[in-house]
Amino acid sequence: MTEREQELIRLAEEEVEKNIEVVESDPYRLRYHLIPPVGLLNDPNGFIQWNGTYHLFYQWMPFKTGHGAKFWGHYSSEDLVTWKHEPIALAPSEWFEKNGCYSGSAVEHDGKMVLFYTGNVKDADGNRETYQCMAVSEDGVTFDKKGPVVELPEGYTAHFRDPKVWKKDADWYMVVGAQSESLTGKVALLKSSDLKEWQHLGAIAGSGMNGLGDFGYMWECPDLFELDGVDVLVASPQGLEAEGMKYQNVYQAGYFVGELDYASATFDHGDFVELDRGFEFYAPQTTLDEKGRRLMVGWMGVPEQDEDKHPTIAHKWVHALTLPRELKWVDGKLLQVPVEELALMRKDQLVKKIDLQLSGDKIGLEIRESKAFEMSLSFKDDVASFEMDLSDTIQLIFDASERVFSLRRKSFVTGEWESRSCRLQELSELRAYVDTSSVEFFLNGGEEVFTARIFPDGHAAGMVTVSGDGTVGEMEVWKIEPE
Ligand code: FRU
């Protein structure tokens, strides 16, 4: 470790030490989601199950609640439920990463954990350079930096970042989020036989390619994987115009389903579909775990979307990661299902109701001001409308005649109601994870998901009412108390 690296790590640790109390005393602090110990967290990075243990790194700015020269923070877990905060994995100490160890991924090779990340470099005039770098670990805790392994290929601006690496047969592949010289968003594909020498095969997707029209000026955080017989490309494009119910956030995160032809380096794909219909979701990353599950975690935030207005900033921290979700491809639909291990967090059952008739009168649930709970509802097929209100901050509304599902939220900036919606043929099931200042709603077995931050008055999210027209076949609520 260089002296500069030691110094940066020491300063970051001091910052954590100094602020532990102010962060922990925040009534909006999340109970079972991953948050930074202090400062700003953004993208999930390096998600991997390695020698049985899950490792989840994250973009971290320890010194302020804004963006800057990022570190890689590090959490590990045996069960995706209880997480341990590990020592800092990467600090932006060297010339090739001096303005940030930006996003990237992890693979296992020869028993070692190998990280790929973007070294972000800016000069005094703001000109950018980018290096895709490698770091290797034998113990999963300390990382030996190997420096840049990929220089910027021709045809792109220096907005070339976020390497995601995987193995296919005997070779390694990397997708990188990119911007072409004509300022359009792209995903570049590279290939290597040894993880050190990389060959650029070309752009496989992007604005103006594969039947897409104008589709943004930059694509961030790509991820490409096989799922139940199809190839899925996840990306976070920037520069899409809002269109009806779609693309309402400042930047988007979604996927294309298709087939990657490794020989010709072409990706034939369908339409872009947003992964999450809520307010805060961006830059997700997946991994294949030892059980063969494709797991995904996202950043519960969006760049430049009122980031500096989050009430938690008063307590010196901002943003969180989503819960881990298992991805499935079923009957032409991508489903996101909260991982089954989350059931380990259930404590007391607060509510159990069978055959609950909905009416125009709001029925209150006995959640006793709990801040952290899981809720599951299954509906009979007579549901014409459904509404759920949560602490005067969130409303869920389904109207079967319109076939639209909406999430309304009281803005934490203006206090006005704002909404996000999607088409939904029917409402058969709803699962909710409420955690103090966040909500994640999974509809119909994960067919649609809505994620949002909420900041209810009095800091409690536990006042819930349901109303509508139809029958809830079964409703259960569990208090969640992480260890
Ligand atoms: C996405 C992103 C990435 C970049 C990282 C920097 O949120 O902008 O493209 O690597 O965040 O923190």
UniProtKB/TrEMBL annotation:
Main location class = cytoplasm
Q: Where is the Glycosyl hydrolase family 32 C-terminal domain?
A: 363-478
Per the record, GO CC terms?
Answer: cytoplasm
Gene Ontology terms describing biological process:
carbohydrate metabolic process
Give its localization.
Answer: Cytoplasm
Sorted keywords for this record are: Carbohydrate metabolism, Cytoplasm, Glycosidase, Hydrolase
Q: Which family does it belong to?
A: Belongs to the glycosyl hydrolase 32 family.
The task this protein performs is described as: Enables the bacterium to metabolize sucrose as a sole carbon source.
According to UniProt, the name of this protein is Sucrose-6-phosphate hydrolase
